[in-house]
Design a protein that fits this description.
- The complex is a heterodimer.
- Chain A is of the alpha+beta class.
- Helix content of chain A is 60%, strand content 9%.
- Chain A has a domain of 144 residues.
- Chain B has 2 domains: 77 residues, no CATH class; 78 residues.
- The chains are: A alpha+beta, B mainly alpha.
Chain lengths: 502, 191
Amino acid sequence: MKFSLKPSPAFVRDMTDGHSVLGLTLSTLLYIVCVSGTLAVFYNEFERWEQASELETLEVKPAVYATATEQVSALASAQGEKFNSVTFTIPNSDMPRLVVRVGKIERHLGEDGSLQGTVFHDWTHFLTYLHFALNLPVVLGVPLVGLIGVLMAALILSGLLAHPKILKDAFSFRMAGSRRLQQVDLHNRLGVWAAPFHLAIAVTGAFIGLSQVVAFAIAGLFFGGDVEKVEAMLYREESAIAQDAGQVPLPDFEKILAEMSRLAPGHEQNRLRIFHPGREGQMVEIVTRVPGRLVWGERYRFNAQGRLMHKEGWSDGEAGKQVYASNFRLHFGHFSGFPVKIAYFLLGVGMCVLVVSGINIWLIRKRQRGAPAVRLERVWMAQVWGIPFAIALSAVTYLVFAVSAVQVFWLTTVVLSVVAAFFGTVAGWSMLLRGATIVTCLLAVITHVSIFGADSFVRASLVANAVWLLTAAGIAASCLYTWVRRRECNPAPSVSGAVSSG
Amino acid sequence: MPNAIYIIAGLASLSALAGIVTLYRAWLHTGVQPVRRWLGWALVVVSAWGWSAVVGVEYGISIATLIVMLGVFGLIALNGDWPSGPPRQDKHRVTTKPAPARAANLIGLRGIARCLAVVILPALSGVAAGLLFFGVANLVDSSRLIGAGFVAITFWTLAVVWCCADRKLLRPGAALVLFLAASGLYLLPAV
């Protein structure tokens, strides 16, 4: 009996069929997750873009934390907000703004620790929430997106297994070929060469989304349903104090921050949390970013006198903790600075093109077989360009009218899909929505400039506005390419609804 | 020293790009080009090593991989066979006869069964595999927990691929049900 590693034609056919079924099932949801995730790489920049004129600094005097804690505690008490901790964002390179949060209260702080305006990041929260939960309730949405991550990993695996000529075609890019060949080459080159990135994103995304499901299962089977016992394996539980704990002065922030700098020189501090402020047994927690490591950070806890009580061990503790803490930066592309964010953005765009070309191949194949899915082609095209359009539109309407971005996005997407099912041509929808997206991206920048003036072109706002402008420029380039190709080929535009015209 | 870091990072990036070009040239020339191919991959590895020396192993490998991926796409776009003149038409095949109603129903039922199998069985089996790992692995708690998460996802993914690709749905279906039963029998007495 001869043994061969070369896959048989039947195996390849079965894998291709399985790959198609999975891809078609996921299509729109996967595309939404990919588009929103690509933009969400810049979520820090978008948060700062939403309130472009806020004070930005990296210098904070320790006394500021005491002043702010007193003021925000008084405000929370006045508003009837029950709390047992006060959390600060320590200004850092990703978010150089001093922010304090107690329950639902979130305020910017002045240089002296005085409470300033309320923090509004509603549009960015819509974008990130769309990415990790499809705007569904978290309990449902997060595992659903986790499931999409698993299916995406399955798609990558079945795609690689269904590709017997992976080496022979390694650099083939036959854009001069037939429409199907163009889409196949685009799909395969993106799929094969970017497979490490796609797998990293799919696996870490699946892990983040489904970790709670696995934790529930483990808790149910091994710990009598006590999920907190499972969580305690990764996170130290919050400290509890006696009900009648007396009032004491706030912690010695100067001593704590000095001790923190001594313990971890070179670490960027990005979060400070005071548990039970002003009560006996109060405690301060500081999270730092560990240089050269993918872990989200390291967590230190100090008593009120500035003595280290506990270090979480995410950066140098048990292997499981380190692996867990490394998932997030790898998924978000938040390591090694801005160039990596740009690389993640570009590869994210590639992932969107991969999804689109995959469905296009299936639609072209159907057309070739003499059974074109004309309605589906129109709906798909309306979604391909309609989803970026809806996201850009939600940004504009949020900036101008403070309208709910969730409603604008989903209403636009659903209406476009329904209308495209009955009217127009594929080419028509493609050009119309590409044009609309260009205009809306430009409007987002114009609106921002009209609200924030010169602040629109500095720091994070410059980055966020550049993302809008470059997106518009990229889509304009694609329109120009389509137009030039049409002029070269045929002066009379096709109305047959060619899928590749998208 | 900062200058040395920039020089090493620059050389590592050049090494990645040189590796891509070498791999491309190996691919361009007909016949087997093992030396060029291995040299290409070696240069990519050198790039990862160089970046690791500058920014640490975790960042280094990630950055070198990103450079290779983006570099390949740049090269492919530059050397791609871009169209000029009228487009080539897709071949249209003769329409096959529509399937008889009974056969179409059968295909539909199979499709539903397959979808259910793909959604439910791999999910249950994946979670069972994770639980099995948590129950069996002789590691510290946090490592058992995270290991269980990754085992669950890996098993889940492989099961989805199998359920989607196997023409005889009964095969993966039966195997996964058997695995579920076996893991249940193993785990339940231990709890």
